[in-house]
Amino acid sequence: MVIYKRNKALIAELSTPRPGTKDLHFESRFSWPFWTQCMACLWKQHLSYWRNPAYTAVRFIFTVFLALVFGTLFTGSWSRSQDLFNAMGSMYAATLFLGVQNSSSVQPVVAVERTVFYRERAAGMYSALPYAFGH
C-alpha cells in the first residue's frame, strides 16, 4: 500500500508541467512529409510484390495469355466499317476483362495488407492518401 501511494504521488508530481513551459505542438499528425510518405509506401509495395513471385507470375502469365487471345481478334481485314466496330468492341472487352481479373486477383493481397495499414496509420507513419498512391 505504501508503494501504491508513493507511485500515485509521483504520477501527480510528474503530470504537472513546470512553470514557464509550453505545450508540445506538432505541425502534422504524421512524422514524414507527404512525398516521403508516398515514396515509402511505393517502396513497401514494391517489396511486397517482389516477395510474392507466385502472385506476380500468375498475373503476368494470365495477362500474356489474354493478350494473345484478344490479339487474334484484331488480325484480319479492315475492309468494312463493321470490322472496325468489332475491333473496338473487342478492345473494350479486353480492357474490361483485364481490369476485373487484376482487381479480383489483388483482393487477397490487399486483405492481408489492410491490417498492416491500420497498424502503421495508427502509429502515425503515413495517411491513407500516400498508401492509396502506393497501390
From TrEMBL:
It is a multi-pass membrane protein. The lineage of its organism: Eukaryota, Viridiplantae, Streptophyta, Embryophyta, Tracheophyta. Its main location: membrane. It comes from Datura stramonium. It is found in: Membrane. PANTHER family: PLEIOTROPIC DRUG RESISTANCE PROTEIN 1-LIKE ISOFORM X1. The chain crosses the membrane at residues 57-78. This is Transcription factor. Keywords: Membrane, Transmembrane, Transmembrane helix. Residues 36-135 form the ABC-2 type transporter transmembrane domain. InterPro entries: ABC2_TM. It comes from the Eukaryota.
